[in-house]
Amino acid sequence: MKTLLTNTVVVSLFYLTAFVDVFSGVLILGGILPEGGAGSPSQLFRFFLLFLLFRVAMLSRRFFYNLSFFIIYILSVELISFLFHQSAYGLIIGLIYGGKIIYLLLVYYALKVLVYNQYLTTSRVKKHIKRYILLTSLLLLLPFFLNIGNSTYLEGTFGFKGFFSSGNGLGVFLGVSSLLLIYHFKIHKSYYSFLRSIITLFATLIVGSKTALFFFVTGISTLLFSIKRYLSILFMVMGGLVLIYYLPSLINTFGVVFDVIVFRFNNADNFFSFIMSNRDVYFLDAIENYRIDGFLFFRIFFGFGVYTSFRDPSNHYLSFDTLESDFADLFFMYGLFSLLIYFSIILYFGFIGLRKRKYFLSIIFIFLIFHSLFAGHVILNSMSGVMLPLIAFLMKED
To answer: CA 91 → CA 78, 82, 83, 307, 308, distances in Å?
Structure first.
C-alpha cells in the first residue's frame, strides 16, 4: 500500500504534472477555458495531488497538525469573506488560490515524510527533480523546433511559451531550474548533467521574459566558469560564430525588444516603476481602495480572502485579479499574519542554507524569493511555486 502511494506521488508530481500543464495551456490559449478561471485540468489535477500529498503528510503527526492549522486558517478567512461578497465564484476562486499555498506546503512535507520513513532516498528525489525539469524543457523545445505554439507576449514580437499558459510562471520555473541543474553539474561534472543544463538554459532563453533573460545570463555565465578553461573558450568561440551567422535576425529581434523597453521606460513614472513593470502603481491603487473602518480593521492582521483582497467587501460586483506581487497579495488576502509566517519560513531556510554552507542553493533560493516578493508568479502560481519547496527540501536534506 505504501509502495503504491509513494509511486503514485512520484509519478503524479514529477512526471504527469508537466503534461497536464501543457493540456491546460492548449485549452486556455485555444479560448476553451478563461485564463485565471476555475476548473482547468491543472487545477483539478493539483486538487487530486492535494489529497494524495495530504495522505502522505498524515504519516507525521507534527506535519498533520501544522497543515491542519493552515487549512483551517485559510478556510476561515475565505468563508468570512464569502459572507460579505456572497459570490459562489468568488468562494471557488478563494479556495483554488488558497489551495495553491497549501499545495506548496504539502510538497515539502510529503517529501520529508517519504524520505524520513525510507520510502524514498534523497538521491532518488534529486533524480526525479532533474527529470521533471528536463521533461518540462523538452515540452517547450519540441513545439519551438516544430514551429507551433504561442508567443510569450500577445504582440508576438519576442519570446515563446509553446503550449504553456503562463509565460511568466514558465520563465521563473525554467530560470530557477537551470541554475539548479548547473549547481548539480558543478558537483558531479558529468557529460549528461552538462547537456541537461544546456538544454534547460536554451529553453529558458526562448521564453524571452525579463526574468528568463536574467536567469539565462546568470546561468550561462556560471556554467562557463564551471567548466575547464579550454572548453569555456571553445564555447565562447562557437557562440561567437553562431552570433555572427544569425546577426541580421538577432538585430531585428533585439531591435523590437529594445523598442518595447524604451517605450516602457518612457512611460514609467520612475526607474523603480520601470523595473517593477508598474506593479508599484498597482499597489498604490490598492492602498487607495483599502478600507479598514469598523470591523474591517481586523483585515490588516488576517486579510479578507483572495476574491476580495484589497477591494471593498460590500461591493457585490467584484472583479478578480492579483497584484502580481506575492508580498502585496499575501498581505491583502491573508493579512500580516501570513506575511509573518512567510518571512519566518524564508529566514529559517536561509539560515539552514548558510549553516550547511550550501551557498549556491541559498543564492537560487534568494533569487526566487525576491521574484516572489516583488514580481509575483511564485506563491500563487503552482508551476513556478513548486520550486520553493523543492529547493527548501534540497537545502535541508541534500
So the answer is: 7, 6, 10, 7, 10
Please tell me the distance from the alpha carbon of residue 159 to that of residue 267, in angstroms, as a whole number. Answer: 22
CB contact burial 134-173 (16+ within 10 A = b; e otherwise):
bebbebbbebeeeeebbebeeeeebbbbbbbbbbbbbbbb
DSSP alpha helix (H) spans, the chain: 2-11, 17-29, 41-57, 61-85, 88-116, 122-145, 167-188, 191-207, 210-226, 229-245, 247-267, 271-275, 279-288, 299-302, 326-355, 359-375, 382-385, 387-397
Cell of 53: 500529498
pTM of the complete model: 0.89
Question: CA-CA distance, 308 to 78, in Å (whole number)?
Answer: 9
Residues 6+ apart with CB under 8 A from 193: 130, 181, 184, 185
Does the structure show a pLDDT above 90 at 176?
Answer: yes
Residue pair 89/367 in contact by the 8 Å Cβ criterion: no
What DSSP string runs through 323-351?
-S-HHHHHHHHHHHHHHHHHHHHHHHHHH
Q: What is the pLDDT of residues 296-312, one digit of tens each?
A: 889 999 999 999 988 88
